[in-house]
Amino acid sequence: MATANKATKGFAALVKALYAKTKWSPFALSRRVRAVKQQLPMKTKVAQAIIAHGEGLRPDRYLGRADLVEVQQTIAKLGGATPATANGPRPKRAKSPATRVFNFKPFNLKTKDPFLGKEKYAEAVKMSEAYPALYVLENSIRAVIRGVMVGKYGDNWWDTQLNTGKVSNVKTKVNDRLNKEEYQSWHQRRGAHQIDYTDLSHLLIIAQSKRDLFFPRLLGDENWFQSLVDQTSPSRNTLCHMNPLSAHSVTALGVRLTEWENHLQNREAEIRAAMTPTTLT
């Protein structure tokens, strides 16, 4: 009778329990599944069961005998943790040494630190879901502004168009960062163009220095664009200084990215036209 109960639960119930425990989005789970399958070809549902096992769920409570054996054999091939068995709880692990090893399997990262609490490692995994949205949003804004400035003023726009008012302070700040980078020869360069050294707030200043060019035709209503930057900047500063964002802030970041993407879809033709170089006379 117990076996029949397991069969009625199956992989779908195990995945449902995984979502409930981790609060992951489907995208977050899909990314982890891809990382596991890169290590060894397997069925998606088996990869999901392996991930659930790693998060402390017991596949033997959800899967029938044949499915459970398949999961156990795959875990063994991966050289991972001892799989749960159908005959009882998994064996107790030996006590860890003073220095614990944290293995972020989905990201192929293994690290140990005798002082950092495990909550920071949990935060690292959570923030890995927030950072891509911030990265895409800021770099997309940067690409639009740079492309439009090149289209209007040519490749030397940074040298010729940022010499007065508040925008000249942005240029000075970037030059300071470039000069500092010269003393850090052991490290890679931050970017290929000066705009790669700007902050999100600097991009707003550059756009506002050319209001007639950018607003409202290309970047929409100026108040909306300024609000987008102003509301994103605190999350950027928090995350880039290695502090966690609240669940509300992570959600809000995703909403702002969606708003920006919607804007680009509505203004794509105008933006592309503005990026087309004009003949300067």
Folded structure, characterized:
With 281 residues, this protein is an all-alpha fold. The protein folds into two domains: 2-90, no CATH class; 118-275, no CATH class. It has eleven helices and two strands; from the N terminus they run ααααββααααααα. A hairpin with a 4-residue loop joins strand 1 and strand 2. Helix 2 (26-39) packs across helix 3 and helix 5 runs parallel beside helix 8 (200-208). The longest helix is centred in the middle third of the chain and has 36 residues, at 118-153. It is elongated and about 70 Å long. Residues 1-7 and 81-91 have low confidence and may be disordered.
Summarize the structure in short.
This protein has 281 residues and is mainly alpha-helical. The protein has 11 helices and 2 strands.
Topology:
Elements: H1 2-22, H2 26-39, H3 44-54, H4 65-78, E1 101-104, E2 109-112, H5 118-153, H6 157-161, H7 165-182, H8 200-208, H9 211-214, H10 222-240, H11 247-275
Antiparallel strand pairs: 1-2
How big is the Rg? Answer: 25 Å
Tell me the strand order in the biggest sheet: 1-2
Counting structural domains, the number is 2
Total count of helical runs of at least 4 residues = 11
Mean pLDDT: 83
Q: Order of helices and strands, N to C?
A: HHHHEEHHHHHHH
Structural class: mainly alpha
The residue ranges in which pLDDT falls below 50 over 5 or more consecutive positions are: 1-7, 81-91
Gap between N and C termini: 86 Å
Question: What can be said about the biggest beta sheet?
Answer: 2 strands, antiparallel
- What's the total number of strands? 2
Strand content: under 5%
The share of residues in helices is 55-70%
- Overall body shape: elongated
